[in-house]
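ZP: hey, is the magnesium ion complex queued? I don't see it on the tracker
AM: it wasn't, my bad. submitting now with these inputs:
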Amino acid sequence: MTQRHNQIMQGEPHIRVHDVTLTYGNYIVMKDISFSIRKGEIFVVMGGSGCGKSTLMKIMLGLMPPEKGDVFYNGVNFWESSQDKRNQILENVGILYQKGALWSSMTLAENVALPLEEHSDLGHEQIREIVSFKLSLVGLTGFEEFYPSELSGGMIKRAALARAMALDPDILFFDEPSAGLDPVSSRVLDDLILEVRDSLKTTVVVISHDLESIFAIADNSVFLDLETRTMTAAGNPRELLEESRNTKVCSFLTRGKPCT
Ligand SMILES: Nc1ncnc2c1ncn2[C@@H]1O[C@H](COP(=O)(O)OP(=O)(O)O)[C@@H](O)[C@H]1O
Ligand SMILES: [Mg+2]
């Protein structure tokens, strides 16, 4: 069996980050980051504030090239691809940024319709139907004509999720989904992330330092260490909690309790 055939048999990872390094001048933001994300998996990039999580997300989303290393989508080298090919890859990716979730001057329906108007040839009526359906998936039926300022933080995040799902992406990225949410809204969003993955088989990449959420949703993870600027653990967070001998990983996963 050829190596290529072997790879296909084992299933190419949906996303693969290989040996990524990024510096600002002399300042190393991250080095030697490598991991694979399988199709339909909820993968969490975790670590304390300032460890490089958002920067890594930008590198994976084409907003910033790595200094060294590669990002592959379905085996295609993203940063070595043409701009057209990169755009094509990104059309399959929905993104929820930490801030600036929705356009404040537009209703929820208009916000969710926007990507469909920009990236599809669908007619007005079809778009309206898709918008209603996506808003129903996130529990916001009846809120079509509301403006973001009329909604709670949790509802805004859910509407942003509906917008990120407008074009039926294969991959969803979330930067700190629970940031700024109360525990109940945060839990509702976690349940929704699980539901979306289970029903639509979407691959989900979540940037987070929220332990409760991490344990609730993650199949797999990497831990970025602030001090050494590299990844010091990878795997299922519950298993890491049981098994990791790295004191900083333990301390993060136990909120600073001594590790056993
Ligand atoms: N444009 C930039 N120029 C210089 N340093 C930056 C820039 N963006 C981020 N950084 C630094 O890179 C590090 C990682 O930032 P970030 O990826 O936002 O971390 P996180 O999302 O984990 O909190 C931080 O120390 C931050 O100050
Ligand atoms: Mg961040």
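AM: back. The radius of gyration is 19 Å.
ZP: great, adding it to the tracker
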